[in-house]
Amino acid sequence: MHMTIRELQLQNPSKRLNKQILNWTLFNLLSALSFLHDVAKVVHADINPSNIMLSVDDKSLLPEFEKAEAEQPSAKKVINETRTIYGSRKLGLPKDSLWGQPILCDFGEARIGDAHNGLVQPVLYRAPEVLFEMKWSYSIDIWNVAALIWDLFESKHLFHALDEAQEVSATHHIAEMVGYLGTPSLEYQRRSQVTKNVFDDKGHWKGAGGVAVPEMPLEQVETVLEGEEKRRFLAFVRKMLKWIPEERRQATELLTDPWMEGAVPGI
User: Fold this and answer.
1) Measuring CA to CA, how many Å separate 253 from each of 142, 243, 257, 260?
2) Disulfide engineering: 58 pairs with which of 4, 94, 211, 252, CB 3.0-4.6 Å?
């Protein structure tokens, strides 16, 4: 593998993936999650642009890399008789648009089985059940994908989770969720005592610490698309952004969503 999907994104002057590359990436990512969730029973729990890498489809990169290493060896530091640290060397850029296949990597935070507790996921990609210290399962990966899409396609974060001092704030993060999705049901709130930190006994936003719910519908913050294509895109994202984990579409279902039509050329 030769570069991350983030590095590919930054190759574009617009600093975003176009629809074709986004959907090709999503096809591979959702296919991987379909296997992980349905067959292997694994939650990845750490999906981010640095953990999706591109395979080496342009094989000419390898002899070029070997030649460069032979002519100008990478710097190295000998620690002892059994350990030597070598400097890294990047592969060149592929030719003829042979960027490779997106592959989900880095299973260091993965969990095996259906139900788990504890803090996981990159901060901006955390599902609400993780923030509320509820039990969580495969569906946290689905929420994660929705937030990831925004980074790759819109070239901006869907959530910021920062207070006025630019410090990470779970309260501000949840306020943003309420701004996009509305207030979760009382039934959902009763799944955890932690929800009382931000919602009152009637299920309304408390405004703890003076934090207000921002008014920002998804239609307003999505700025790339228009018309029917925008409607289909937002409908696709909303199937993943659900308070109740059981209501989120599974990876296998998302692969057949109307937004994904044409994700694989010729299929």
Assistant:
1) 11, 18, 7, 11
2) 94
The answer for residues whose C-beta is within 8 angstroms of residue 176's C-beta and 6 or more apart is: 159, 160, 161, 214, 216
Q: Tell me, what DSSP letter sits at residue 164?
A: T
Structure tokens at 161: 């989770």
Query: Is 46 a known active-site residue?
Result: yes
pLDDT confidence tier of residue 37, bands split at 50, 70 and 90? very high
* Closest CA relative to residue 150, chosen from 226, 214, 241, 215: 241
Choose, from 38, 46, 141, 151, the residue flagged as catalytic: 46
The answer to whether the beta carbons of residues 162 and 23 sit under 8 Å apart is no
- Please state which of the ranges 11-25, 64-78, 171-185 shows the lowest mean pLDDT: 64-78
CA 257, 98, 224: angle at the middle one, nearest 5? Answer: 45
How far, in Å, CA of 256 to CA of 176, rounded? 29
Average pLDDT over residues 230-236: 97
Question: Angle, to 10 degrees, between the axis of helix 19-35 and the axis of helix 139-149?
Answer: 170
The first and second tokens of residue 170, run together, are 């779970």
Q: pLDDT tens across 91-106, in order? A: 666 676 657 889 999 9
Bridge partner list, 193: none
* Residue 89 to residue 257: CA distance in whole angstroms: 40
Structure confidence at residue 1 as a pLDDT band (50, 70, 90): low
Query: Using 50, 70 and 90 to split pLDDT, how confident is the model at 61?
Result: low
